[in-house]
What we know:
Elements: H1 9-37, H2 41-53, H3 59-71, H4 75-88, H5 93-102, H6 109-125, H7 134-146, H8 151-165, H9 170-182, H10 186-199, H11 204-214, H12 219-232, H13 237-249, H14 253-266, H15 271-283, H16 287-297, H17 305-317, H18 321-334, H19 339-352, H20 355-368, H21 373-385, E1 389-392, E2 396-400, H22 402-427, E3 435-440, H23 443-451, E4 461-463, E5 467-471, H24 483-500, H25 506-520, H26 530-537, H27 547-550, H28 557-578, H29 580-591, H30 596-603, H31 607-623, H32 636-639, H33 642-647, H34 652-664, H35 668-681, H36 691-701, H37 705-718, H38 723-736, H39 739-752, H40 757-769, H41 773-785, H42 791-804, H43 810-820, H44 825-837
Parallel strand pairs: 2-3, 3-5
Antiparallel strand pairs: 1-2, 4-5
Helix pairs in contact: 1-2, 1-3, 2-3, 3-4, 4-5, 5-6, 6-7, 7-8, 7-9, 8-9, 9-10, 9-11, 10-11, 11-12, 12-13, 13-14, 13-15, 14-15, 15-16, 15-17, 17-18, 17-19, 18-19, 19-20, 20-21, 22-24, 24-25, 24-29, 25-28, 26-31, 28-29, 29-30, 34-35, 35-36, 36-37, 37-38, 38-39, 39-40, 40-41, 41-42, ...
Amino acid sequence: MRANTSLGGLAWLLVFTLLITTGVRAAELTNARQQFITGQYSNCIAECEQAIASFEYEEEWRVLLVKSLAASGQYEKAGTIISNALDRYSWSIPMRLLAHEVLPYAGATNRADEVLREIETLVSSRTDNRARTADTMVAIGRAILLLGADPRKVLDNLFEPARKAAPENRDVYLAMGELALAKHDYNLAAKQFGAGLKKFPGDPDMHFGLAEAFQSGDRKEMLKNLNATLTKNTNHVGALLMLTRHLIAGEEYVDAESLLERALAVNPWQPEAWAYRAVMAHLRSDAEGEKNARDNALKFWRTNPEVDYLIGQNLSQKYRFAEGAAYQRRALSFNLNYVPARIQLAEDLLRLGDEDEGWRLAEEAHKHDEYDVTSFNLVTLKDKLAKYRTLTNAGFIVRMTTNEALIYGEQVLALLTRAKSNLTARYGIELPRQTIVEIFAEQRDFGVRTFGIPDNPGFLGVCFGAVITANSPATQLATPANWEAVLWHEFAHVITLTMTKNKMPRWLSEGISVHEELQENPAWGQRMTVRYREMILGEDFVPISELSSAFLAPKTPVHLQFAYYESALAIEFIVKNFGFDAIKKILRGLGEGIEINKAIATHTGEMDKLEEDFAKFARERAEALAPELDFAKPEPADMRSKEWLAENPTNYWALQRRVVNAFAAKEWSNAVPVLEKLTELFPTQGGEDGAWVLLARAHRELNNTNAERAALMKAAALDGDLPDVYFRLAELGVRAQDWNLVFTNARRALAVNPLVPHPHRLLAQSAEAEGHDPDAITANRILLRLDPPDPAETHFRLARLLNKKSDPETKRQVLQALEEAPRYREALKLLRELQSKERPQDKPADAPTTLK
């Protein structure tokens, strides 16, 4: 008898109904997942609760429900649901990982720790890796990272296999990016989130991850990705809080508070949001508001170390390192092994100059997590710094590479000592301790010491208060800067930060430092330029109250430099109208905790009036630049028209084009009258492409040496970083035997780059010619350390100088000259003279009596 294997009509109907129901539920789950990703937490909660009430067993419904409840601040309800789910899904590692994250906010920190250990037990008891889904592998990886697993093994053995097995699983990309962020490997994080974004275009969490990866480097990319995040998820609290942090850094507190209100509307008990409120209360000296905000941040998880870590970290970013360090200690009192707080405390202490404890904490953090990039960079830097030479006096501890210390270390100490003497007297302050100054021969090391990461180009120096870090001239050979101006600028920060206890806005700090550069040397600092004139009279002028934010995310490098210039202009305005004492009184007020606008108003006038008057002052200054020149920009076609150029003899751009045309045709005699007109109408135009430098070039081509020299001297007086100008002036000085001109320009060149031989040779030559033998001896000794092109001559010159004072080292220098050049006649003659003066008892027994 044959069995009938076909399904009856009712059976088919049941199967069809089951398929339809499964498809509907899958679609509903996808919809709920999307609601969570896009921040529609209330809708997601309602859909999940409805599905669970309909006896949906799929664990992701409960995962989404718990995450949505937690995201909206319903921690107790989330804790209840996740606790029940642990029994229902006893085998689920993702559910246990979520419980570990949520239970502390439900007052169950001990249970959260137990759950993590249960994951460890579950992982070790499962031997069949093939049964693991991508979600499970990601959860295992995240969990064992918390337990101290090797990050590289987690990547290789869990995250990468999960990505290959399920390339459409977004959590894999998020987990890999978050791991890189946790270890401060921002380049890798950007790569991982970028790959995730290609797979999931427009995903708000991928954009947010990219924003986090760029926050320490490219702020434009950070802001672009934050905007993309909030476009897709207007309730993305992480993005709102990162923007809040950005605004706090730029002192835009009203806008920051507005964003916090948006974040707290999503989750009224979001700990990080309340932490930022505590930061802002601290910054306005509102102790009660700070305490209340911190209490709210810790309302559900009383021992959450992240809260104090975040408060302290943000205070440190405002240069409040002492207060920041105190918060890190509070964080560590909750969890001694909380690595972020250890690293931040180490950096805070190092910036405060408390080096012994700072380096010890950095080493401890590295031992606890040897894969963290920041702590690794710090301990590596410590080993490098141990090889540096230390120079000290009563006011300073200076660290430099040994070679650089021997070349210009004494000049560094002398400059800093002069700066301290001048500025402490000017501001009426005594510094409580020595200032630490570290000058790094590699920009990477400067970046690590200053920012905790190696990649942060563009900074010449940074001052933290009692500690200054600076890039050596060795790092800036392509774009040289005057190291003396840099150190003077940074030491001015030491004065103002000490007076205010680091409680001052960025614009005021930078403005005073640039102002002090100009007071010491008019060739330092900045002056009005054509571009700055355009910016002031155009749309780039910034009110004083917004000046600090101009440093944070400038549109271009020129806008950053303009922020420094405008800040210095604001200081000049205050000094001119209210006296220098007003600046000192404002600084003292800030040190007493008075809010900046109130401090300014007390000693100048109300901010609205002050800003109005300053804007007028700035416009007048801009309009006073070369007032007889016409700065109206012509059309491109006009610039190509010889007739238009001739018909506009006072148009700045026309004159510039005429110079360019003459230089291109090498018509030097045609260029001279145009350049002379430019220098007459615009005598303060500096720079290597300025009219004075170009005029000197034209005169040189025409062999008008005296005119060339005069033009070069004008250029040198305007700018402190024109080495080619200084070298040419020194060369002309040598020809004319004008040793004062040689000496002056050799010193100017050394202030730009002391690590090349030529200026030392010029200094030695001029000092010797003027009879300043000690200076000549020092210059020749330094020159020998720099591998000069003619070492024999340098050894001989040094020997000749030493011989004048019968120095026993004379003979050794002569012999070294002859070792380099055996037929050096003058050296041979000097050696014979030395030998003839030696007494018999001074000679070795086998020494020849004459030179063979």
